[in-house]
């Protein structure tokens, strides 16, 4: 018995000696405590490679992979457009498209559905971790094809999805909570190299930080970029902040700038991470309600846990009951070693240096470890450079730099368009005519980008000969206000864009400069607008010397005048053949229902403003007020005079609530219709959370239902051919079935109704 005890003691001592020294708790230096690595890790290339390939727990990466795949599955039916794909890519439709490369064209409609099916299966495979690499390849190949196919849908978050999908394809995202882990136990719960986390964390840091850098723009700092968000949009703001100016400056612009500049740093450090996660989560939840930006807020919410310790899912799911752990991610086993990582070997000192502690050195660095480190460094440098690469692609620069979508300048620029005119001239006969703005296209973004305008003009020149217009010349007169500046031309209206030169690497020669010298006028705009009553509207115009604005005043605008602020103009009343010179500080009334032209005759840009009243709407509103007062007296029993026949429907309106009342007078009929719609709006806005959730779920159900059924029809067409036209019509009608009572787009119709859009 004593011998056995001695043997056991000897074995325990041997195991103790053989145990790796790094398992003993060691005191970390300040740099390692803050950043997670030592200064020595950056002093040489081998040390840097070993750092980027350091073994790391795969749990957090696996959870992010699953969440990202789920969000992309939802996004494909929503923002990617599966539910309305047939409207966008209908075969044979005369549509002008705006691909990044002109040789890119959409496939036939049924094949486009197949592309979306491949993308959907890829996203689903990413979510499940099923044939992971193949799923990533299926997703990103189709995603980038659709992305490059239409520049008009580009935005920063769509670009971000493509980047993350590309990164995941190169990472070991299927090592945790994946079907591949069940199929191949050798990869299940194996460690992943640190660069997997480094890439994702750096990408998200860049999104936040460069967005903050872009918000240092003077327009953002001064509160002009998003001033359209009023205090009513923020119910959480304290009462003393309920001023549009304070909300715009402090909450929207100041808060957005601070959060973007600091979020990446605060998420990185342990001490500030809990506060950062709280504020960015609140920020993204608020954005999901204020803006129609699809899955972006939820995707950013899914990225926040990446900054936590990689083993957080194990600790989180370990608190769940044991009966649920069969379907939940692993919580107890330690990750297995992986050949993708670099492990440190403990080298003991020689006999003559027993007092020296053991030294940890990385194991042999393989080629894939070095390539991974090189790729990580190059990718990060490229992502830092690309938002500032506009000096290369100068043809895409307009008033703002580059194609919108990869510069992280989210919400920095807001635009409004006052006037768009497309003029064509027959190259053989010289006949001049006008086109409806947006004809042959489904997008409006072409108005702000020279490259898209060139594509649009070229497309129009191909379509117009079908309408007996030979060798057409196309001229665009587009007036834009950016960040509440004057409305001004963005492109030279004298240039035939069909034959105009454009190169992606040369400045656009027919781009008109932004009149930034007139920006200080914006503070005066607010003073002028504040001095007007609620029925008076105003538009501020700036024009270049030698050009003129041709305008038509609607008959509804019975009181329209032009006030000159700067420069000299001549106003020509076309029908009366009169020319009137107007100096700064002077004004002239222009007739309604007629054309007039405003010529800039000074050597400097002219600035003037239209002040007008919609007399038709004002009269209608006055009648509505009288009808409302009569209706209130009827309800209160204070109406003593007998009602004339045309006003009697006002008394019957309450008895027929929810149904139309037969009214002969058009104004009474419109008033009752408006009142009924206002009640519906109020009812929907005051609905409880359960009812709102039900409406949201029903709306999404019919959207997803249509996408699914149209996909099934397309796959059937590819497999067995097109059915008879009658059958196809019935199938599409069934797919188009709407929610009962047609409430899907009711909110939009109600907004138009309240604003008297029917006039």
Structure report:
The chain is 44% helix and 12% strand. It has 759 residues and is α+β, with helices and mostly antiparallel strands. Strands 6-5-7-8 form a four-stranded antiparallel sheet. A hairpin with a 6-residue loop joins strand 5 and strand 6. Helix 21 packs across helix 24. It is globular, with a radius of gyration of 33 Å. The termini are far apart. The N terminus and C terminus are likely disordered.
Question: Which short descriptors sum up this protein?
Answer:
four-stranded antiparallel β-sheet; 759 residues; disordered N terminus; globular; alpha+beta; disordered C terminus; 24 helices
Tell me the strand order in the biggest sheet: 6-5-7-8
- What is the radius of gyration? 33 Å
Shape: globular
Largest sheet entry: 4 strands, antiparallel
Report helical residue fraction.
Answer: 40-55%
Q: Give the N-to-C terminal Cα separation.
A: 105 Å
**Number of beta strands:** 16
Q: Strand fraction band?
A: 5-15%
**What is the average of the pLDDT values?**
87
Weakly predicted, low-confidence segments: 1-25, 742-759
Q: Please give the count of helices.
A: 24
SSE-based structural type: alpha+beta
EC number: 4.1.1.90
Membrane topology: Multi-pass membrane protein
Pfam family, one: VKGC_lumenal_dom
Enzyme class: lyase
């Amino acid at each position: 018995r004593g011998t056995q005890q001695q043997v056991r003691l000897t074995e325990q001592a041997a195991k103790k000696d053989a145990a790796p020294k790094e398992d003993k708790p060691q005191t970390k230096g300040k740099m390692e405590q803050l950043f997670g690595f030592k200064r020595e890790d950056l002093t040489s290339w081998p040390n840097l490679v070993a750092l980027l390939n350091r073994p790391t727990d795969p749990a957090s990466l696996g959870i992010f992979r699953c969440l990202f795949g789920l969000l992309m599955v939802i996004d494909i039916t929503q923002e990617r457009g599966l539910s309305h794909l047939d409207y966008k890519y209908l075969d044979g439709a005369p549509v002008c498209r705006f691909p990044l490369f002109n040789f890119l064209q959409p496939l036939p409609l049924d094949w486009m559905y197949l592309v979306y099916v491949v993308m959907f299966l890829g996203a689903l495979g990413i979510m499940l971790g099923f044939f992971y690499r193949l799923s990533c390849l299926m997703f990103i190949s189709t995603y980038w094809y659709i992305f490059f196919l239409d520049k008009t849908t580009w935005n920063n978050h769509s670009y971000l999805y493509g980047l993350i999908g590309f990164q995941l394809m190169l990472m070991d995202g299927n090592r945790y909570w994946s079907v591949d882990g069940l199929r191949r136990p050798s990869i299940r719960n194996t460690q992943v190299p640190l660069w997997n986390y480094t890439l994702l964390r750096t990408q998200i840091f860049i999104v936040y930080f460069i967005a903050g850098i872009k918000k240092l723009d003077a327009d953002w700092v001064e509160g002009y970029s998003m001033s359209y968000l009023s205090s009513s949009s923020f119910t959480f703001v304290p009462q003393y902040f309920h001023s549009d100016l304070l909300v715009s400056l402090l909450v929207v612009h100041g808060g957005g700038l601070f959060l973007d500049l600091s979020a990446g740093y605060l998420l990185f450090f342990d001490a500030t991470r809990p506060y950062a996660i709280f504020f960015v989560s609140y920020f993204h939840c608020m954005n999901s309600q204020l803006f129609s930006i699809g899955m972006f807020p939820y995707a950013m919410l899914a990225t926040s846990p990446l900054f936590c310790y990689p083993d957080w899912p194990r600790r989180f799911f370990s608190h769940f009951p044991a009966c649920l752990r069969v379907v939940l991610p692993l919580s107890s086993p330690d990750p297995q070693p992986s050949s993708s990582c670099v492990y440190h070997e403990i080298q003991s000192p020689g006999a003559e240096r027993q007092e020296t502690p053991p030294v940890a050195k990385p194991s042999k660095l393989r080629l894939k470890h070095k390539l991974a480190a090189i790729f990580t460094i190059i990718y990060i440098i490229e992502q830092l450079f690309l938002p500032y690469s506009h000096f290369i692609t100068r043809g895409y620069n307009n008033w703002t730099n580059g194609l919108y979508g990869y510069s992280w300048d989210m919400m920095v620029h807001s635009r409004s368009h006052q006037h768009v005119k497309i003029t064509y001239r027959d190259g053989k006969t010289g006949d001049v005519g006008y086109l409806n703005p947006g004809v042959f296209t489904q997008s409006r973004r072409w108005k702000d980008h020279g490259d898209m305008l060139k594509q649009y003009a070229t497309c129009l020149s191909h379509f117009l000969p079908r309408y007996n217009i030979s060798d057409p010349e196309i001229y665009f007169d587009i007036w834009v206000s950016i960040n509440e500046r004057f409305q001004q031309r963005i492109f030279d209206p004298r240039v035939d864009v069909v034959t105009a030169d454009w190169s992606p690497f040369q400045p656009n020669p027919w781009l008109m400069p932004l009149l930034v010298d007139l920006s200080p006028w914006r503070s005066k705009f607010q003073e002028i607008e504040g001095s007007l009553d609620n029925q008076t509207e105003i538009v501020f115009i700036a024009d270049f010397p030698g050009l003129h604005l041709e305008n038509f005043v609607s008959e509804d605008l019975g009181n329209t005048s032009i006030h000159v602020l700067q420069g000299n103009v001549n106003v020509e009343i076309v029908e009366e053949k009169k020319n009137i010179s107007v100096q700064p500080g002077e004004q002239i009334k222009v007739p309604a229902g007629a054309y007039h032209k405003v010529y800039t005759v000074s050597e400097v840009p002219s600035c003037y403003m239209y002040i007008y009243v919609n007399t038709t709407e004002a009269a209608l509103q006055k009648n509505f007020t009288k009808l409302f007062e009569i209706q209130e007296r009827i309800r209160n029993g204070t109406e003593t005079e007998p009602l004339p026949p045309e006003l009697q429907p006002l008394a019957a309106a309450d008895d027929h609530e929810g149904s139309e009342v037969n009214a002969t007078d058009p104004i009474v009929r419109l008033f009752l219709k408006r009142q009924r719609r206002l009640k519906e709006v109020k009812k929907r806005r005051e609905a409880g959370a359960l009812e709102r959730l039900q409406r949201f779920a029903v709306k999404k159900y019919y959207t997803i239902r249509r996408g699914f059924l149209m996909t099934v029809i397309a796959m059937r067409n590819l497999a067995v051919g097109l059915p008879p036209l009658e059958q196809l019509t019935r199938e599409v009608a069934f797919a188009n079935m709407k929610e009962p009572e047609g409430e899907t787009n009711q909110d939009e119709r109600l907004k138009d109704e309240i604003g008297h859009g029917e006039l």
